[in-house]
Amino acid sequence: MFLGPGLLCFGLLKRVISQVQKLILIVVGAFLILAAAVFAIPVVNQAVITVFWFLFTVGAIIYVMIWCPGCPQPSRFFDFVIQKVAAGGIPQLLE
User: Fold this and answer.
1) Residue 22: Cβ within 10 Å count
2) Are 49 and 41 in contact (CB under 8 A)?
3) Structure pTM?
4) Does residue 1 sit in helix, strand or coil?
5) Three-state SS annotation for 70-92
6) How many angstroms separate the CA atoms of 56 and 16, rounded?
7) Closest CA to 32 of 63, 71, 61, 3
8) What is the pLDDT of residues 20-79, one digit of tens each?
């Protein structure tokens, strides 16, 4: 789970132009490879795996709860509000 994206970071270095972004990509890639090495140790894996999956699940739920409401197409209500605001401003909405 960590090794692939870590190696991908180093593979993507050729495409990045900015030196600052290259440095950030190197740091992130090294961190991911280090995390993969730590999780490869069975004793550490057994001690940390429960916390890791809990945080992963909570992060995924938070991501979905933020992403889903922000991505639907605008409905007719939004078109109505935009027309009312364009026609007469905010007080027009209160009528």
Assistant:
1) 15
2) no
3) 0.60
4) coil
5) HCCCCCHHHHHHHHHHHHHCHHH
6) 28
7) 3
8) 999 999 999 999 999 999 989 999 999 999 999 999 999 999 998 888 777 766 666 667
| 61's tokens | 């739920």
Domain ranges across the chain: 1-40, 45-88
One-letter amino acid for residue 56 of the chain: F
> For the residues of 6-65, what is the DSSP string, one character each?
HHHHHHGGGG---HHHHHHHHHHHHHHHHHHHHHTSHHHHHHHHHHHHHHHHHHHHHHHH
**Which band of pLDDT confidence, cut at 50, 70 and 90, is reported for residue 90?**
low
pLDDT tens figures, 4-16: 999 998 988 888 8
